[in-house]
Amino acid sequence: MKIQQTTLANGLRIITGELADARSLTATISVGTGSRYETFATNGGVSHFLEHLLFKGTKKYPTAEIIAEAIDAVGGYSNAYTSEDVTCYYIKVPGRHGQLALDILCDMMASPLIEAAEVDRERGVIIEEMNVWRDDPARFVGTLTPALIFPDNPLGQDIIGPEDVINKIPAADIAAYQQRHYHPGNLVVAVAGQVQHEVVVRQVEAALGGLKPQPATVAPAVTSPPAQDLVAVHDKATAQAHFMVAARAYPYEHKDERAAKVMAAILGRGMSSRLFANVRERQGLAYTVFAEINNFVDTGIFQAYAGVNLEKIPQALTSVLHELERIRTEPVGEAELHKAQQQLRASLEMSLESNGAVADRLGTQLLLLGHTQPLDEVIAATEAVTAADVQRVAQELLAPGQLRLAIIAPEPQAAAEHFKHLVTPKETSHAA
Predict the structure, then answer these.
(1) Residue 51 annotated among the catalytic residues of the structure
(2) Which residue in 1, 129, 203, 362 is deepest, having the highest Cβ count within 10 Å?
(3) Which of 18, 38, 51, 122 is catalytic?
(4) Rg of the Cα trace of the chain?
């Protein structure tokens, strides 16, 4: 893959990945804003709301129907996502239609309409999106743990925002947010697939080169330890209990980031992982069980999920915590270590056969880190992790005092007390 990068005079960055045999391309524009730049009570969810609205019309493409028809007419598709620190818009098309994809995306950045009537119409759509998440406890439980891990920080907020804000935030406030955060120093255009770098640069410079630079906006730093509350509970009439055990993890490019990824893979990646083998295969307690780590530029979060039989919540919790204890106290065998390393390597290598994944990786890394990570360096760092590294990282991240629990169940209080009992240090008595 041939990677090229250009920075325009106004600070906007452009990066391309040319894939020799590709017949399509994915064009993305990543913006350095998300829920951690919001104030939950007043504009929580505005980044995600804005993501919806940019597909509703621009100066050149004034309605959602016109945008959709233009993309459908060439056999392409479009979408976007909002995270804590990035909002990314993307369009995938046959390579010969790359100019159209970039034209639409650039007009979204430069000339969105954000009309009051569309804002009011979209409020209901976002509320229904909230309801989809709330009706899916396996996903909704993942929105409960961040508040325990990042209290007093926007990272602990739900990305979609609170319903009362979505119902009342004015169109003018959304437009002002767009103008404040969608400036050239905060944008990265990334295109991967059948692409010519110079052609992309010329088009983007003509469309966005006139945007005026603005001062960078800095998200509030994470300064507080995890919450004193050990558990977040949500009462819901579910057929299963859904819980996540969470802890704070490392940021991108921390010296132990790769060791932590290997640790999470050993615990809960794939059908031969420890959590899957113990909780599902040996005991039959869950259908879905996994562990993962998500990173940010300044911190991270570890989460282990299980959806379990309501009658067996204590057994499942005990089993999950047992596996966390075992990886803290017992060195990992070489075969298991190697397997986890190969899983991570293969996942990265195979994902990059998609030009959409390539564009997303290039754009978000350049935006968040200021550079891209060479694939060979990431693989080498992963394969350099030792069993001692895994145990040391597990002892630091997964110590009982660092663990928090979120659970959704019809009567979750007993499970909450069981978790507290398991992670609270026991007093020892001494005979006289």
Answers:
(1) yes
(2) 362
(3) 51
(4) 23
